[in-house]
Amino acid sequence: MDFVPAIKSGFQNYVTFSGRACRSEYWFWVLFVLIVSVVATILDAILAAVIAIGFLSLIWSLAVLLPGIAVAVRRMHDLDKSGWWVLIGLIPIIGWIIFIIWACTKGTDGSNRFGPDPLAGRAAAAAAP
Q1: For the chain: N or C, fewer Cβ within 10 A?
Q2: Is the Cβ–Cβ distance between 76 and 83 less than 8 Å?
Q3: Is the entire prediction scored with pTM above 0.85?
Q4: Cβ partners under 8 Å of residue 71, min gap 6
Q5: Integer angstrom CA distances of residue 27 from 9, 21, 98, 121
Q6: 112 three-state secondary structure
Q7: Whether the Cβ atoms of residue 3 and residue 58 lie closer than 8 Å to each other
Q8: Which residues of the chain are under the pLDDT cut of 70?
Q9: Could you tell me if 78 and 107 are in contact, meaning their C-beta atoms sit under 8 angstroms apart?
Q10: Furthest-apart CA pair in the chain: how many Å?
Q11: Average predicted confidence (pLDDT) for the chain
């Protein structure tokens, strides 16, 4: 999945906790959120210097909280793990490392209990002459 479709998917499925999300969808979402967060923080610093108020990064964080959780849950589903495993990130350092390793791991091939393989259609299209 490319960058723009991954972002669209993140916002279109912002409360969809079922189904699966491939690695590229998850990591492009993380990259997008990180880039916009940095920009919002810089704008907050500028606004705080000019009008003594900075709230853009807070608004952005609240806006992407639910979609971020949803795409993380779908990423766990791609690994055939329960979405509750996202909570392992609440354990400092060890939990973060485990979650990052899982998020970098290739999902299960073919269908699993959470739905069809999100890359199956693309693999068939790429194999066609």
Answers
A1: C
A2: yes
A3: yes
A4: 9, 10, 13, 21, 25, 26, 29
A5: 12, 10, 16, 20
A6: strand
A7: no
A8: 52, 121-129
A9: yes
A10: 60
A11: 90
